[in-house]
Input
Amino acid sequence: MARLEAMRLLLAFACMSGFKLVQMDVKTIYEEIFVSQPPGFEDHLYPNHVYKLKKALYGLNQAPRQWYKRLRNFLLSDNYERGKIDKSLFIKKSNSVVILVQIYIDDIIFGSTNDRLCVEFVTAMHGEFEMSMMGELSFFFGL
Output
């Protein structure tokens, strides 16, 4: 998860470079989750069986970790580089243009010096995940 200092740096860099930032939000995160039989709900015929949850990951402790892992793998496979200090920042460079992607739990803030890279990013994200566009970033955690 991005720290507030990282968000401030991204906002400052975007202002300095003259590009707008856009926000996306993941709609739902589904993963296969199995849990052991809770006390009082054991099946005596099948004591070693586990339950498969039929629930989105929201509310579960592993939700942010699973979402980040899946998103990280997707971005790295698409030639993004992960920040060396801030592991929730991803950068993709193409000649003299750059796109920055900052992850904050289930929010993605991104911007580029070239609108074409933003369009490609949005298309790729919608092709892989169920996302909603929040529009141009104007307010984020009091910033």
